[in-house]
Amino acid sequence: MTATETSALVDIPASLLPLIPLPPLEVLPDARARGAECVWGGEPLSTATAIDLGERETDGGHWFPRACRPCTRRAVLAARNDHPGRCEQCTDDATLCETRRALHTLALELRR
């Protein structure tokens, strides 16, 4: 099995993208801002390794952040762990929250 086969791209559902916190665009070096490097860790990315973090609006237009798999997984886990404090369903019964479950499933998928 090749590295590409073991790290197949992951499509993050559009509904989860806003829950994944990103660093402010204005503090990022150019290579991270344009998606050549991981938005969090700065690792070089290729079309085979980059995970698309969706289109984001900025004051002057649009931004298309990308990241590596390990950093994306850490960010998704952080979003999953932060979610219960912002969700009424999680306050009542976290096992019934579809958003938290979707974040957890995505984190598991990113582990592969």
Write a compact overview of the structure shown.
It is built from five helices and four strands. It is mainly α and 112 residues long. The strands form two sheets. The protein has a two-stranded antiparallel sheet. The chain has a two-stranded antiparallel sheet with strand order 2-3.
Explain this structure.
The chain is mainly α and 112 residues long. It has one domain. It has helices at residues 3-6, 30-33, 69-82, 88-93, 98-111; strands at residues 51-52, 56-58, 61-63, 66-67. It has a two-stranded antiparallel ribbon with strand order 1-4. β2 (56-58) and β3 (61-63) form a beta hairpin. α3 (69-82) runs antiparallel to α5 (98-111). The two termini are 13 Å apart. Mean pLDDT is 89; it is low at 1-6.
How helical, in percent, are the residues? 25-40%
Instruction: Estimate what percentage of residues fall within beta strands.
Output: 5-15%
Averaged pLDDT = 89
Count of extended strands: 4
Order of helices and strands: HHEEEEHHH
Largest sheet: 2 strands, antiparallel
Q: For the CA atoms, what is the radius of gyration?
A: 15 Å
Tell me the layout of helices and strands.
Blueprint: H1 3-6, H2 30-33, E1 51-52, E2 56-58, E3 61-63, E4 66-67, H3 69-82, H4 88-93, H5 98-111
Antiparallel strand pairs: 1-4, 2-3
Helix pairs in contact: 3-5
Which characteristics define this entry?
disordered N terminus; mainly alpha; two-stranded antiparallel ribbon; 112 residues; 4 strands; 5 helices; globular
